């Protein structure tokens, strides 16, 4: 893994805006790229598939032993989550965040419910590669995998229409949703887009503003927010993408459970739901949070970095801290995509701090 300086493409801003990527200012960077060996890519792919399999086992463990309280799941939601799992409701996508430590991906967390940085990791990054390194490869089958996953969803559900919703005041969410709609349409799905607040709940079913009943809905909106806002809406007669069982995977309180179930995995960092006297080097994370908020890094018992935010009410987990290698003063985190249950590609975000937050920058990559 190497970080290599490079001259940006001429008028690259216009090129990526033409692809629907308009929130790139101070985020998408072309003055450098990361280069990986095929062995490193194969290790990331293997880690992604194995971590997803471990998460599947961990969800089954939570359900079998009724551990919903450990994940701060609101009372009354357990049965609906069980039903979603037992029906095998289909999942579209998720993103693992890894730190590469001596060639081994170490799992930092799993963005299993509402992951973004998708458009740039998929077609925008690929176009950059095609323009500058046409003869090189890239770990990137994201777009093709999304299209295939939508085809699989239609083969299973056979819906006449699929609704897509998000909060449109968030530009990144809106453009991520637009990209997913385009992929769904390429797969042959009939789609409709509405805003989250336009979902109309009436007698256990959702309707769109035209009065059409919504039977399957992709929501770029976190399950924990939905559960706190309307349990009646969560349990309505509708198929959700992501499914309700993903509320377990997206929960950082799963990290201690993974650590307990797989103490010898090379990819899983030791993690607990409470601070023990012997812990001197750890990362304190809220059970629910976004964009690196309310994270504290502790080394040798001393706080070395801390981020602000409004999360943490439900509690924290304490994960073994690893020293992410610095490249030219930047700390990269690998976002490895799992689509339809399989590894599909990756994108890299980097920051000058050790916590990846909403000020991170996206850097493209190639395979040597």
From TrEMBL:
Pfam families in alphabetical order: GSP_synth
GO molecular function list: ATP binding; ligase activity; metal ion binding
Q: What's the superkingdom here?
A: Bacteria
Glutathionylspermidine synthase pre-ATP-grasp-like domain sequence ranges = 13-367
UniProt cross-references to Gene3D superfamilies, sorted A to Z = 3.30.1490.330
Q: Is Ribonucleoprotein among this UniProt entry's keywords?
A: no
Indicate yes or no for the key word Kinase.
no
Alphabetized, the UniProt keywords read: ATP-binding, Ligase, Magnesium, Metal-binding, Nucleotide-binding
Q: What's the protein called, per UniProt?
A: Glutathionylspermidine synthase family protein
């Amino acid at each position: 893994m190497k970080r290599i300086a490079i001259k940006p493409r001429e008028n690259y801003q216009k090129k990526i805006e033409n692809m629907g990527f308009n929130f790139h200012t101070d985020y998408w960077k072309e003055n450098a790229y990361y280069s990986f060996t095929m062995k490193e890519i194969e290790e990331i792919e293997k880690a992604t598939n194995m971590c997803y399999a471990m998460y599947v086992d961990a969800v089954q463990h939570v359900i079998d032993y009724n551990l919903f309280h450990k994940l701060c799941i609101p009372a009354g939601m357990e049965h609906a989550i069980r039903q979603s799992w037992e029906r095998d409701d289909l999942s579209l996508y998720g993103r693992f965040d890894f730190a590469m430590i001596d060639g081994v991906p170490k799992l930092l967390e799993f963005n299993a419910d509402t992951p973004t940085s998708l458009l740039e990791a998929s077609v925008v990054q690929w176009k950059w590669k095609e323009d500058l390194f046409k003869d090189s490869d890239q770990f990137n089958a994201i777009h093709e995998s999304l299209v295939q996953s939508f085809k699989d969803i239609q083969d299973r559900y056979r819906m006449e229409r699929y609704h897509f919703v998000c909060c449109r005041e968030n530009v990144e969410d809106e453009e991520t949703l637009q990209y997913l709609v385009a992929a769904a349409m390429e797969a042959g799905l009939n789609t409709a887009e509405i805003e989250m607040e336009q979902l109309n709940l009436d007698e256990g079913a959702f309707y769109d503003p035209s009065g059409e009943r919504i039977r399957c809905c992709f929501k770029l909106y976190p399950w924990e927010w939905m559960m706190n806002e309307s349990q009646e809406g969560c349990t309505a007669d509708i198929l959700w993408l992501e499914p309700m069982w993903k509320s377990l995977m997206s929960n950082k309180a799963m990290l201690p459970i993974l650590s307990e179930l797989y103490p010898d995995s090379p990819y899983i960092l030791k993690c607990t739901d409470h601070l023990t006297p012997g812990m001197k080097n750890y990362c304190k994370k809220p059970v629910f949070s976004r964009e690196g908020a309310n994270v504290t890094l502790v080394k040798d018992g001393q706080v070395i970095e801390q981020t602000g935010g409004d999360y943490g009410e439900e509690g924290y987990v304490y994960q073994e801290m690893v020293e992410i290698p610095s490249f030219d003063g930047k700390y990269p985190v690998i976002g490895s995509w799992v689509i339809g249950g399989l590894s599909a590609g990756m994108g890299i975000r980097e920051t000058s701090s050790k916590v990846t937050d909403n000020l991170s920058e996206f850097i493209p990559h190639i395979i040597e």
